[in-house]
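Input record (one chain):
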Amino acid sequence: MKHLLTAIKILVMSTALITTPPALADEPLATDLMRQRSLVSSGNPARIQAVLAKARRGEPICLAAIGGSITAGGKNTKDPQRRYVQQLGKWFETTFPGLKVRVVNAGIGGTNSTYGALRVQRDVIAQQPDLVVVEYAVNDSTGLGKLDESYEGVLRQLLAGSPNRALIQLFFMHKDNTNGQPEQEVLGRHYGLPMISFRDAVWPELQTGKLKWETIYDDVIHPNDAGHDIASELLRDFLNNSLAKLPKTDAELAPVAAVPAPMISDTYERCTLFRPADLKPLSSEGWVFADSRVWECGSAGGRLEYEVTGSILLLGRNIPATASKNVDIIVDGDAPRLLLPDGHNLPVAKDLKPGKHRVAVVVRPFGEAGKENTKKVQIWWVGGAGL
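The corresponding structure, as predicted from the sequence alone:
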């Protein structure tokens, strides 16, 4: 919870003009072969050309990235200016001298595209970005069920928000070479999006020993500064190639195609999100709004009721081990169901009738009798999809 709250605080403060050039690697780590392998698809060039043409005209550019802890960078990157999204901002500044570039890093650790679909409007689209990098290949490969429906929702919201907004899909990987690229690649082809695979670029190098995992990764998931250098090189190579093909005049630019019909579903295109300060319970007993950050319930137990709209309901929460079998959720007066401690941002209710739903989170007394228990059940956010 502490890390999530810190990440959200950093996110709020992360929209700023680039003023200090990032400390790039002295020499490129990505070989020509790695760059070639990284390009899964160039996609339909119309949107990226529209962004490059805007930069060529000298108009301010907003660049954003949404994803998990890889995008956020955190302690795994020693120099924040070397995170791949910051380095993309530097590319625009260098390529178009005098250009004003604003960078939004909307990465939050421990989150996947289900939470991403709920917050993309507030954390990204509200900033009116011209180019957005979407990075959920690692966190969407949970093994708990495919998240391609919510990933499609993120893409659709971003595409529908502006006809000239460009998207780039970026695929990182786990140390065992797994990620959600197969499902996300199918969606990328459906929407004609550029796709860059860090996994495809570096995995053969790791297998042959030309590149060591420890050189580019801080642990089994998070790239270090050198890893972000490579990712930014791959992205910059795509932008350089796109710029080389940019028509000489705006009049020659190809029109941007309409957003195609959903491949899987448009359910996550219409979402709502209540963060703790936004949540106004219908009733509350034993729960408190703590430190303007979370809703909490202690070991004595309690009941919190709220209303949310959607055919899919989601709930960000923290349930301590001592309360793991003592927290139920009740939707529209149905029978109580055990609320699992680790939700992985997955739905708590699906296939509901459209409209408003009354939800109760019930905490039964937990912990050992007679002993002080400082552990709390917490609600971080409430969401619904399919409005």
